[in-house]
């Protein structure tokens, strides 16, 4: 294999490691909200596109292409080395800048984007230049343009698969973020140094051969060329928007964990890699316009047809329920199976599309860098806009199903446009018409339900409320047989009205007053449907700050008024849409009570069970302040359970553990915990009116 292909493969590994690590570090500073995550992706993609545009034009005008590539790799390594020290300090810097500035949510979002773009611009700008520069190095004559672009794009993407796999499953878990990033930095420096060595300079083959596509180029392609950058933008928009929609759809069926999203990303990139290799295997005399038109129409057909079957996807897992009892398989197998069914086939088509359109646009070796840079810029700009519009706008106003159909229609229209330039167009037109008809049927069912909502002889669920927001799909259901109601965000149960679920959230509200009956300033992290907050509001307090990462739950609270006493109308409540950890990071306010009711740590709330988070809570406590934290008793190994308690107790010198029927609570204070039996009698909730029953809920202390 040519050494340039190997180097570009390793360049892909480092690029995806950076993307994974930087996203995590930036979200620690800006919050793990959908808006923040989308803006980070957008800034990353925009930097890549600008770099591709600039260096694509630059490399055509300069010689010593191997030195340019070397400088790019060394520059990426050096700028990433500086970020290695800067990004961990970003939360403190963010607090210093934003602490005393009261910004509206839109202004804050714009500020996140600007800061992220500035921080990541240099390394992403240099990364964007690697594809056109390496193409100039590797593609030595016009007959190799098609295969050269396909191989480079494919192997770089395969490197991304390895980078995402290693970072998401092994490196970060075992080495941490800093050492993982250091490995990527080492790869860049190694490539950069190697390119300076004499044996790395492979002489160019100066051939005057004409492209095998010459005749085609002088007719159809010349008429199409002016449209190709715009087409590249459209397919980039569709690809990234589709990825966002797929991730949201699958999150309703799967565990909301880092591993789940890593698996979806790996399947997405694997499909693109295989598609690019298929493109390389196409015959040189293939009609690329015909192939591109067909691929786009098939992509659209698969996407809109898939919308018909989304709610049936969980049935694919019923046959392997026995295997899923094993924790190792439960961690990755459901995500792998469902993402292969939904994502893999269309991403193969996407993997064919990008190198194909590059080959159509750049067919002369003299300006291949410039042509490829233009297509790359248009494609990544479209990708950035696709991510931005899907993640922030489209899901919130139109929903996932409508979004997927809209994206599928983009592919269908692009394919139909190219079909008009073909002689044999009948088959494509038939597929196009069928896809349009299917899309009308698909859009009739706009709801995607989690597998938790089902019908059986012992349970008959009905949906009372359904709303897709940018932060999650919110569902309120009721069992017709028992009247028990449940609320979900994606596939995570927020609350149910069963006895054990209601008791623990009420205890999270009342228990802190046993230790600090004079508390006035309260912080609730995880408003949910407001039951904990309504319990706190019964006491003699001044104000409650409620932080909720999914603010749409406030509307769902209207279906639980028998339990929350219309707390969402209470003027004492200050509702704050944000990530709880990020709110504490940016605030200097002290609280007498901090009550935290996150979802289970394996459902995406792991950052609210860390030592860093508990230390933030401690820093925001008044002298007699109390922290009350939900403690799950299920779906944790004994080692994980003990580790969670130990982490909490390391931060709070005085810790006690309480039992809330089938759930637990951790209570932490800076002062020794003294429990007066009289205080157990004064709790203002009918469910907690038996002091003896409450006393036996006291399990352990430190």
From TrEMBL:
<dbReference type="InterPro" id="IPR029063">
    <property type="entry name" value="SAM-dependent_MTases_sf"/>
</dbReference>
<feature type="transmembrane region" description="Helical">
    <location>
        <begin position="287"/>
        <end position="311"/>
    </location>
</feature>
<dbReference type="GO" id="GO:0008295">
    <property type="term" value="P:spermidine biosynthetic process"/>
</dbReference>
<feature type="transmembrane region" description="Helical">
    <location>
        <begin position="227"/>
        <end position="247"/>
    </location>
</feature>
<keyword id="KW-0472">Membrane</keyword>
<feature type="transmembrane region" description="Helical">
    <location>
        <begin position="36"/>
        <end position="56"/>
    </location>
</feature>
<keyword id="KW-1133">Transmembrane helix</keyword>
<feature type="transmembrane region" description="Helical">
    <location>
        <begin position="149"/>
        <end position="172"/>
    </location>
</feature>
<protein>
    <recommendedName>
        <fullName>PABS domain-containing protein</fullName>
    </recommendedName>
</protein>
<feature type="transmembrane region" description="Helical">
    <location>
        <begin position="107"/>
        <end position="128"/>
    </location>
</feature>
<dbReference type="InterPro" id="IPR036259">
    <property type="entry name" value="MFS_trans_sf"/>
</dbReference>
<feature type="transmembrane region" description="Helical">
    <location>
        <begin position="7"/>
        <end position="30"/>
    </location>
</feature>
<feature type="transmembrane region" description="Helical">
    <location>
        <begin position="178"/>
        <end position="197"/>
    </location>
</feature>
<feature type="transmembrane region" description="Helical">
    <location>
        <begin position="331"/>
        <end position="362"/>
    </location>
</feature>
<feature type="transmembrane region" description="Helical">
    <location>
        <begin position="374"/>
        <end position="395"/>
    </location>
</feature>
<dbReference type="InterPro" id="IPR001045">
    <property type="entry name" value="Spermi_synthase"/>
</dbReference>
<feature type="transmembrane region" description="Helical">
    <location>
        <begin position="426"/>
        <end position="443"/>
    </location>
</feature>
<dbReference type="Pfam" id="PF01564">
    <property type="entry name" value="Spermine_synth"/>
</dbReference>
<dbReference type="GO" id="GO:0004766">
    <property type="term" value="F:spermidine synthase activity"/>
</dbReference>
<dbReference type="GO" id="GO:0005829">
    <property type="term" value="C:cytosol"/>
</dbReference>
<feature type="transmembrane region" description="Helical">
    <location>
        <begin position="68"/>
        <end position="87"/>
    </location>
</feature>
<keyword id="KW-0812">Transmembrane</keyword>
<feature type="transmembrane region" description="Helical">
    <location>
        <begin position="259"/>
        <end position="280"/>
    </location>
</feature>
<feature type="transmembrane region" description="Helical">
    <location>
        <begin position="401"/>
        <end position="421"/>
    </location>
</feature>
């Amino acid at each position: 294999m040519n050494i340039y292909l190997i180097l570009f493969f390793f360049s892909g590994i480092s690029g995806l490691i950076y993307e994974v690590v930087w996203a995590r570090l930036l979200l620690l500073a800006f919050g793990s909200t959908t808006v923040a995550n989308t803006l980070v992706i957008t800034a990353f993609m925009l930097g890549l596109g600008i770099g591709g545009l600039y260096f694509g034009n630059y490399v055509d005008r300069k010689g010593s292409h191997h030195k340019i590539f070397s400088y790019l790799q060394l520059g990426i390594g050096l700028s990433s080395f500086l970020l290695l020290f800067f990004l961990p300090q970003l939360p403190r810097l963010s607090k210093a800048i934003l602490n005393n500035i009261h910004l509206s949510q839109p202004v804050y979002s714009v500020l996140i984007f600007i800061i992220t773009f500035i921080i990541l611009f240099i390394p992403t700008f240099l990364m964007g230049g690697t594809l056109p520069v390496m193409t100039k190095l590797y593609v030595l004559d016009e007959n190799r343009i098609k295969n050269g672009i396909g191989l480079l794009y494919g192997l770089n993407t395969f490197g991304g698969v390895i980078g995402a796999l290693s970072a998401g499953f092994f490196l970060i878990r075992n080495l941490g973020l800093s050492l993982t990033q250091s490995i990527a930095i080492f790869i860049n420096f190694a490539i950069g140094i190697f390119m300076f060595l004499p044996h790395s300079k492979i002489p160019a083959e100066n051939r005057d051969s004409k492209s095998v596509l010459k005749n085609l180029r002088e007719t159809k392609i010349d008429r199409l060329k002016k449209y190709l950058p715009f087409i590249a933008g459209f397919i980039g928009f569709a690809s990234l928007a589709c990825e966002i929609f797929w991730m949201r759809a699958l999150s309703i069926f799967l565990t909301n964990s880092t591993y789940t999203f890593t698996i979806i990303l790996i399947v997405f990139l694997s499909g693109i890699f295989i598609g690019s290799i298929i493109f390389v295997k196409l015959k040189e005399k293939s009609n690329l316009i015909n192939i591109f038109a067909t691929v786009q129409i098939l992509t659209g057909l698969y996407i809109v047809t898939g919308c018909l079957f989304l709610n049936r996807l969980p049935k694919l897992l019923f046959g392997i329920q026995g295997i899923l009892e094993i924790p190792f398989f439960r961690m990755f197998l459901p995500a792998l199976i469902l993402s292969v069914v939904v994502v893999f086939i269309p991403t193969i088509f996407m993997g064919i599309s990008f190198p194909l359109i590059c080959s159509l646009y750049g067919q002369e070796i003299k300006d291949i860098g410039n042509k490829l840079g233009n297509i790359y810029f248009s494609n990544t700009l479209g990708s950035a806009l696709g991510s931005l519009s899907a993640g922030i706008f489209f899901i919130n106003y139109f929903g996932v199903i409508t979004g997927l159909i809209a994206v599928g229609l983009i592919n269908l229209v692009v394919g139909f446009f190219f079909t008009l330039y073909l002689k044999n167009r009948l088959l494509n037109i038939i597929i196009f018409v069928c896809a349009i008809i299917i899309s009308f049927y698909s859009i009739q069912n706009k709801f995607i339900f989690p597998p938790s909502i089902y019908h059986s002889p012992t349970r008959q669920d009905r949906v009372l409320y359904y709303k897709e927001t940018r932060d999650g799909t919110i569902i309120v259901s009721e069992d017709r047989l028992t009247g028990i109601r449940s609320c979900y965000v994606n596939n995570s149960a927020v609350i149910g009205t069963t006895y054990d679920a209601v008791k623990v959230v009420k205890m999270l509200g009342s228990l802190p007053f046993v230790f600090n009956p004079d508390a006035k300033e309260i912080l609730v992290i995880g408003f949910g449907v407001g039951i904990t907050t309504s319990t706190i509001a019964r006491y003699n307090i001044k104000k409650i700050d409620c932080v909720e990462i999914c603010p749409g739950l406030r509307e769902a609270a209207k279906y639980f008024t028998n339990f929350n006493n219309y707390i969402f109308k209470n003027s004492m409540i200050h509702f704050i849409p944000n990530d709880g950890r990020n709110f504490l990071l940016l605030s200097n306010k002290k609280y007498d009570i901090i009550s935290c009711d996150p979802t289970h740590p394996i459902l995406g709330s792991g950052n609210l069970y860390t030592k860093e988070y508990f230390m933030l809570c401690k820093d925001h406590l008044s002298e007699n302040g109390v922290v009350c934290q939900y403690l799950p008793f299920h779906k944790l190994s004994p080692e994980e359970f003990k580790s969670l308690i130990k982490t909490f107790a390391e931060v709070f010198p005085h810790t006690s553990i309480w039992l809330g029927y089938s759930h637990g609570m951790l209570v932490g204070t800076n002062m020794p915990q003294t429990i007066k039996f009289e205080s157990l009698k004064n709790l203002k909730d009918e469910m907690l009116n038996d002091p003896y029953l409450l006393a036996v809920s006291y399990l352990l202390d430190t």
